[in-house]
């Protein structure tokens, strides 16, 4: 059984959050259906996916039922890099993206001819909210000598202003590659991930000061105390977490890299510092192992997420069945913005494909910069 922490509803205080504050997101998160309704909804979703010739693409942080449905119906459950790639390459004309808004937009940018549906179009992300396109453009204009690298968790308009888009699974390699070419980087929006990559690569990086409200809440002091209670446990940390939490990690990586670590490491107990939605997949990948959520609560903590993203929680069986039935909640991206944004995403996908072709372990790419000289002009 996945342990459930009580959720304290505290408004997300970004001035531009408006209707998307966490209190309202939690209020919109669907209640768990009864066992009978759950079974009916799952049958209905399986049937509608077939009838609509649609495929379900889900993130590791959404409800476990949605993850299971995606896998059993031929869709995919994965991190945002694989979601983007899978959606682009799958022949289905309709993609249903269970995740947050920027994931639906990325799917639309990569596949403008396809219909992209989402269970709730108001499911957003504190990183996206914290990086408004107009302010970001002004920041870029003020630093024209820098190569602009943005994290996937941004709006289409921010991606359109970027030279490269990266995800957490490949950001380190891409920045190492650019650094090896002598480029100076402007990075947005996550300050923790940017700081981690800067430290690992030594690149000259100017950082936008955004953060993920889920990972920002992990507490280094409390994690240290928990480690003392479980001396044999290995600590798995997503690099959107604060530096003092990353410093306590045995493995730092993207969601997929953390799942792989849980599966392949000898340890039987793991403390996990990322959204607790990932524990479902970890338990499937590593049966018999024990997973403990890293602490988000300390003496002065105001828990807005308690290790689960309020916007990911807006995806449920009922609203997934509803969009398949009525075709509502379609994602649209301004075609002109889409044409600009696709360049930064394609660069990353080309880079990832080249890396896979060479099957180089992480870290060796910096020395292989010549290999990627044809990937793109940025
Ligand atoms: S978990 Fe964090 S980074 Fe992911 S969608 Fe939620 S707020 Fe954004």
From TrEMBL:
GO molecular function, one term: metal ion binding
Sites where the protein binds iminosuccinate: 59, 80, 151-153, 168, 238-240, 255
Cellular compartment(s): Cytoplasm
Cofactor(s) the record lists: [4Fe-4S] cluster
Record EC number: 2.5.1.72
Top-level taxon of origin: Bacteria
Gene3D superfamilies: NadA-like (3.40.50.10800)
Keyword Nucleotide-binding: no
The reaction(s) this protein catalyses: iminosuccinate + dihydroxyacetone phosphate = quinolinate + phosphate + 2 H2O + H(+)
Keywords: 4Fe-4S, Cytoplasm, Iron, Iron-sulfur, Metal-binding, Pyridine nucleotide biosynthesis, Transferase
Binding site for [4Fe-4S] cluster: 125, 212, 309
PANTHER family on file: QUINOLINATE SYNTHASE, CHLOROPLASTIC (PTHR30573:SF0), QUINOLINATE SYNTHETASE A (PTHR30573)
HAMAP family, per the entry: NadA_type1
Protein role: Catalyzes the condensation of iminoaspartate with dihydroxyacetone phosphate to form quinolinate.
Protein's recorded name: Quinolinate synthase
Organism: Massilia eurypsychrophila
Gene designation per UniProt: nadA
């Amino acid at each position: 059984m996945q342990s459930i922490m009580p959720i304290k509803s505290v408004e997300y205080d970004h001035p531009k959050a408006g209707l998307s504050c966490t209190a309202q997101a939690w209020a919109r998160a669907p209640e768990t259906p009864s066992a009978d309704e759950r079974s009916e909804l799952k049958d209905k979703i399986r049937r509608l996916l077939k009838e609509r010739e649609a495929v379900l693409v889900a993130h590791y942080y959404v409800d476990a039922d949605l993850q299971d449905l995606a896998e059993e119906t031929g869709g995919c459950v994965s991190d945002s890099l694989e979601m983007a790639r899978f959606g682009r390459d799958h022949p289905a004309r309709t993609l249903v993206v269970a995740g947050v808004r920027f994931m639906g937009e990325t799917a639309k940018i990569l596949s403008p001819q396809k219909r992209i549906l989402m269970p709730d179009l108001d499911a957003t992300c504190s990183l996206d909210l914290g990086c408004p396109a107009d302010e970001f453009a002004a920041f870029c204009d003020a630093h024209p000598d820098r190569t602009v690298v943005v994290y996937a968790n941004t709006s289409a308009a921010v991606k359109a202003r970027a030279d490269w888009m990266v995800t957490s699974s490949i950001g380190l390699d891409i920045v190492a590659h650019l650094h090896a070419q002598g480029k100076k980087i402007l990075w947005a929006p996550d300050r923790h991930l940017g700081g981690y990559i800067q430290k690992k690569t030594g690149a000259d990086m100017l950082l936008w000061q955004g953060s993920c409200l889920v990972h920002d809440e992990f507490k280094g002091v409390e994690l240290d105390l928990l480690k003392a209670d479980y001396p044999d446990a290995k600590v798995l940390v997503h690099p959107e977490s604060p530096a003092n939490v990353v410093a306590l990690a045995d493995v730092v990586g993207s969601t997929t890299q953390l799942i792989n670590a849980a599966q392949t490491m000898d340890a039987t107990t793991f403390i996990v510092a990322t959204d607790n939605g990932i524990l479902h997949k970890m338990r499937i990948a590593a049966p018999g192992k024990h997973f403990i959520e890293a602490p988000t609560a300390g003496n002065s903590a105001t828990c807005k997420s308690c290790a689960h993203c309020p916007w990911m929680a807006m995806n449920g069986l009922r609203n997934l069945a509803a969009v398949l039935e009525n075709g509502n909640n379609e994602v649209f991206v301004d075609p002109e913005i889409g044409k600009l944004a696709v360049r930064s995403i394609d660069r990353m996908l080309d880079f990832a494909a080249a890396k896979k072709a060479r099957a180089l372990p992480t870290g060796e790419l910096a020395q292989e910069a010549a290999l990627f000289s044809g990937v793109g002009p940025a």
